[in-house]
């Protein structure tokens, strides 16, 4: 049975970003990768500071997307390790990394030609970014 939802994939990806923000994730990005790959349309990438926060963010994303976007993930990975977790909804994928894993994989850099969605669309106005991600997004902090 298809993954039915009330909203389009972009809206669901933004719901996931908002859920991550509500759980104090940092370095939140929503990349529109559909023009560069066929596997999915959006990547939602966020950073958590420890295993417990990874779990909390994943739980909040699942809850919010299920309730407000009427979607459930087809596949999950990494939930046991705690340094990285993935929720695959088909047309959007949520990645939550601890800082070391995020820096190692640099997933957002692999698809750096993909447009980055402004998080204001999700109601996020005070997102926190590390220096590396801020630079990548062109949001360098003023000296």
Describe this structure as you would to a colleague.
The protein has 143 residues and is of the alpha+beta class. It is globular, with a radius of gyration of 14 Å. A 5-stranded mixed sheet has the order 1-2-5-4-3. The model has no long low-confidence stretch (mean pLDDT 91). It starts with 8 loop residues before the first helix and ends in a 7-residue tail after the last helix. It is built from 5 helices and 5 strands.
| Strand fraction | 15-25%
- What is the strand arrangement across the widest sheet? 1-2-5-4-3
Low-pLDDT parts are none
Estimate the mean pLDDT confidence: 91
| Spatial shape | globular
Number of helices: 5
Helix content: 25-40%
User: What is the number of strand segments?
Assistant: 5
**Main beta sheet:** 5 strands, mixed
| Rg result | 14 Å
What class, by secondary structure content? alpha+beta
Q: Roughly how many Å apart are the termini?
A: 53 Å
Following the backbone from N to C, one meets helices and strands in this order, namely: HEEHEEEHHH
Q: Summarize this, please?
A:
By secondary structure, the chain is of the alpha+beta class.
């Amino acid at each position: 049975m298809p993954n039915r939802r009330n909203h389009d994939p972009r809206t669901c990806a933004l719901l996931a970003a908002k859920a991550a923000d509500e759980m104090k994730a940092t370095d939140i990005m929503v990349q529109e990768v559909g023009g560069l790959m066929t596997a999915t349309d959006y990547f939602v990438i966020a950073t958590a500071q420890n295993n417990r926060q990874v779990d909390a963010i994943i739980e909040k994303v699942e809850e919010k997307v299920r309730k407000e976007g009427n979607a459930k993930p087809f596949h999950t990975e990494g939930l046991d390790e705690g340094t990285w977790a993935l929720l695959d909804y088909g047309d959007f994928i949520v990645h939550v990394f601890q800082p070391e894993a995020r820096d190692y994989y640099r997933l957002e850099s692999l698809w750096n030609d993909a447009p980055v969605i402004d998080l204001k669309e999700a109601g996020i106005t005070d997102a926190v970014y590390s220096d590396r991600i801020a630079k990548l997004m062109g949001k360098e902090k003023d000296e």
